[in-house]
User: What shape does this take?
Amino acid sequence: MRWIIKILEVEPFKVTCLWNDDIIRTIDLEPFLRLRAKNQNDSYTQLINVKRFSEVKCDGTTLYWENGISMKDTDGTVRPAPIDIDPDVLYEMTLTGRKRITKSTLA
Assistant: This one.
């Protein structure tokens, strides 16, 4: 399984990340987001906004955006929750440009 270690650069709808195999890959999310935005009830629709998209974060595994959805807690309380995308799905979206690096290069 592959996962994202950290974000290196964010552009409109593209995120360049260091993956756990020490390869830098750029994820182009625009086609994914444009498709999802056709349904106004889809939680990913909010990410078609460049400002909102730029709020992307990494938890050491995948990309996420805080307060993207609401979820009901076990006690019935509705709380904000992050919206995220499975790292395997993100890996499939990566562009062909790849650069092998070592973690010490980024230190």
The chain has a mean pLDDT of 90.
